[in-house]
UniProtKB/TrEMBL annotation, chains A, B:
Keywords: DNA-binding, Phosphoprotein, Transcription, Transcription regulation. It comes from Streptomyces dysideae. CDD domains: LuxR_C_like (cd06170), REC_NarL-like (cd17535). Gene3D superfamilies: 3.40.50.2300. This is LuxR family transcriptional regulator. One of its GO terms (biological process) is phosphorelay signal transduction system.
Length: 222, 222
DNA sequence: GAGGGCGTAGTACCCGGGTATTACGGTGGC
DNA sequence: GCCACCGTAATACCCGGGTACTACGCCCTC
């Protein structure tokens, strides 16, 4: 039987979680907390297996509450939930020692599976965030196999021609197609052709994503 | 409709996967491959959305096949499956560019959810491995919580409300208005209102310039 | 000299982004 | 109690961005 503490300032949200968890015969909700400090206090008192922790709460927020619970040496695991998968929240939460990070609009089964996983010592991270974590850190993982390509330049830009790289650079400066055409003495239609090719080659859906890529690859420096 | 290629040397295993996937009305199995080189060749030919890749296969193994598929520049995502969650496999697979790593004894729903996640560009890692990844790397994550850091930041962002800063952040992630609306549970018209206010307050002419500002002010980190 | 990659350019079309305006409920200050 | 601000939302409208397709001249390589 997995014991759970729900920490969320919204009564309806707590109710929803409680209904879901109580419908499972291997879980029970010990109690609820309406803010971070209450969560810390009740955890120290009741030692739940898992704390479902909201990030945004009045007073002590979920991140700081997590940090204190972990620091207490208690064996309680913290699973952070947020409506919003903003990186800073997640990074901060995981740094604080949380065993997981899920978004609230996940499927109920995902949440239940997440609780079971963290209760046994495993960890879970929402897929949307996992992607960003991997993008940022995959190349820092210990190498199990040889054959590392230490990318000369970024592979995502490899297939661009010189001219296309130039176009992408000025896109990164926020120029519109019209401005690019004027300043590079081109027809706007030509600019559009270049832009389309840049998007296709870099796998960018639109201009914004291409600009982000330009920054990420340091083609344009902040 | 998500198109999938199954790469596994065991016929029974392939059959099981095919049965499961074909039972879903949003997935279809394009074809099967019995080893790594076949997987690479068929992927180049058919461009599936997702490759379900076994690690252990005769000839070219799943890791090396993954590396070649990613290196090809194809937009196909690779989801690695293995019987054991041995770290070396996982690290190597993720380094090779895989979008996910799951163990074969996962629940069918987990596998399906994983396929759907990677097909949309997200990523998934088995909980047992996530734990080890976090233990090893959590303290390397970028620091900072949004809660306590009320940005002594850039004056150009000073007049933005909390919500508007959030909107700008996700704009910086390349989300379209439609995506912002969906993921933040807002109406698109509301998103447009927010975006317009952000542009007005930051003096940005359009979305692209706002994103550049987000990078310049480190609101979004490269 | 045939072919291929590249840079240039045009046209037609669609859609998402952005503006302008209005509105309404909640909250906090005075 | 009133007002200001915020977050939410809708509507109508315009225009720039992006796609698809076609085309042509230049240069290089086989």
């Amino acid at each position: 039987m997995t014991t759970v503490l729900i920490a969320d300032d919204q009564p309806l949200q707590r109710l929803g979680f409680r209904m879901l968890l109580e419908s499972q015969d291997d879980m029970t909700v010990l109690t609820e907390a309406v803010n971070g400090s209450e969560a810390v206090r009740l955890t120290a008192e009741l030692h739940p297996d898992v704390v479902l922790m909201d990030v945004r709460m009045p007073g002590l927020d979920g991140i700081e509450a997590t940090r204190r619970i972990i620091a207490s040496g208690d064996r309680t695991r913290v699973l952070i939930l947020t409506t919003f998968d903003l990186d800073e929240y997640a990074y901060a939460g995981l740094r604080a020692g949380a065993s997981g990070f899920l978004v609230k609009d996940a499927q109920p089964e995902e949440l239940l599976a997440g609780i079971r996983a963290v209760s046994t010592g495993d960890a879970v991270v929402a897929p949307s965030l996992t992607r960003r974590l991997l993008d940022a850190y995959a190349h820092h993982l210990p190498s199990g196999t040889p054959a590392d390509a230490p990318e000369a330049a970024d592979p995502r830009l490899a297939s661009l021609t010189e001219r296309e790289r130039e176009i992408l650079t000025v896109m990164g400066m926020g120029w519109t197609n019209t401005e690019i055409a004027e300043r590079l003495h081109l027809a706007e239609s030509t600019v559009k052709t270049h832009v389309s090719r840049v998007l296709a080659k870099t796998g960018s859906r639109d201009r914004v994503q291409a600009v982000i890529l330009a920054y990420d690859t340091k083609l344009v420096k902040p």
